[in-house]
Amino acid sequence: MKRRGFTLFEVLAAITIVALLAAFLFPVFEHAKLGSRRSVTISNLHQCAVALILYADDYGGESGLPEIDAATNALSHAPTCDEDDTWRQNCSVTLPSPLIGSYAYIRGTTYFSDPEVWQNTVTQQSNPTLMLFLGFANPPIPVFTGEAPPANACAGGPCFMPSGLLRVHLDGSVSVRKNANGHLGFSWSSAFNNDADSYVRVP
Asked: Does the pLDDT value for residue 203 go beyond 70?
């Protein structure tokens, strides 16, 4: 008995089913991949925080958190190179303060590097932010130097505070910014401000 081949209709139906399955599953796989990469970042930030906290314990607690140069040395063996860092071509590239590797450090900012500001603001907070990562920011923040991006850096206009901003705190916990404030311009100091209501703690 001669075997009948597939009809054009059957082939098109099979292709359509495969395309629909791919359309449904692709976002799921992408979400899982993003979650996996974010877990690595959270682990890295936590390890960096532990190193800084141990340093601070030897120098008087949170008031003894090191300035940027000492913090860079304290984190020299910590995992500060993140695979989602889009600001650097590779891990050997060094960017200026407040960045230590892929992560920004609070005492590297212009505002919080001032000893008086540090003592009068951050040390009064119960759980200040130590480091943060912009790799998951939405919308992304373009590469800039200084305290804030240029006035026309984001689509020809100012850069506002993004969602997806990961921050690690003095107790080692990590939080993520969920709700962007469309009226708050991005700067390092505003990113480190402890506006806890707009952040959600993550495991």
From this structure: no
